[in-house]
Design brief:
Blueprint lengths: L1 E9 L3 H4 L4 H14 L2 E6 L6 E8 L3 H9 L1 H4 L3 E9 L8
Antiparallel strand pairs: 1-3, 1-4, 2-3
Length: 94
């Protein structure tokens, strides 16, 4: 498995606009976590301008599918996103 970081660049009023979509977003994230694809994720605070999700998957295609199904992305709360391979040097490796 490889580590990848998904970075969401979100709209200015992200915290407010995510509210009606949050339950579905968290359901998708929890399902990805239960499958072992998503290690952890969260949003930066002060300002809440980006969120980061760390995946452990064979291919970034899995992450692309996650993004395309995420209500945050489908409803325009995510302005753009970036998927980056991440070389973990220290810490828990699978």
């Amino acid at each position: 498995m490889n580590y990848y970081v998904l970075i969401y660049y979100v709209v200015d009023d992200y915290v407010v606009r995510r509210t009606p979509l949050r339950e579905e977003h968290l359901r998708l994230a929890n399902e990805a976590s239960a499958r072992g694809d998503l290690a952890f994720g969260g949003v930066f605070t002060d300002p809440a301008d980006r969120s980061v999700l760390v995946f452990t998957v064979k291919s970034p295609d899995t992450i692309e599918a996650f993004v395309k199904n995420d209500p945050y992305y489908k409803n325009g709360i995510v302005k753009k996103y970036e998927i980056r391979p991440w070389n973990v040097v220290v810490g828990n490796k699978k």
